[in-house]
Design goal:
- With about 160 residues, the chain is of the alpha+beta class.
- It has a domain at about 1-75.
- Helices cover about 35% and strands about 10% of the residues.
- It is built from 6 helices and 6 strands; from the N terminus they run αββααββαααββ.
- The strands form 3 sheets. The chain has a two-stranded antiparallel ribbon. Strands 3-4 form a two-stranded antiparallel ribbon. A two-stranded antiparallel sheet has the order 5-6.
- A hairpin with a 6-residue loop joins β5 and β6 (about 130-135).
- The two termini are about 65 Å apart.
Amino acid sequence: MADSYVDAMDPDKLMQCPYDTHHKIRACRFPYHLVKCRKSHLDIAQQLVTCPFNARHQVPRTELSQHIASCDDRTFVEQDIASQLDNRKERNVVSTWQPPPCEEDWDKDLEDGTKSVFVWGTSHSESSGTTVEHKNRLPPGLRAPRSLPNVLPWKSSTEN
């Protein structure tokens, strides 16, 4: 069975189109061909259904249950499901992690009436109660822009 699976995965293997028996398509192009050919043969497409284990398998509605029972890809899907269930059982370990105790109490801070306001570029020292302003680190004679320029320097108006 493994040999037939490897053989089916050969990208150069020719596969027959279920919609038109004259079409022989390389396996690597087969999914794309199915989509395209399904649109061209709507009458046949209504009679065929897709295998739940492999979308490349287009089977007549009346033969679907027989195909599902004998589909080679069914074993691979079942093995996948079984291995995922085994992994899930192994991962079901109860965590003993506990969050650290929280020392913040926002309600208490509101009741205390402390008015510490956040101001960008300053820091407030609680121990001394002083506010320290950060100095501008630009050399003398330069300042940070107050807003973005209307015209970007790397875009000249003559390019239009």
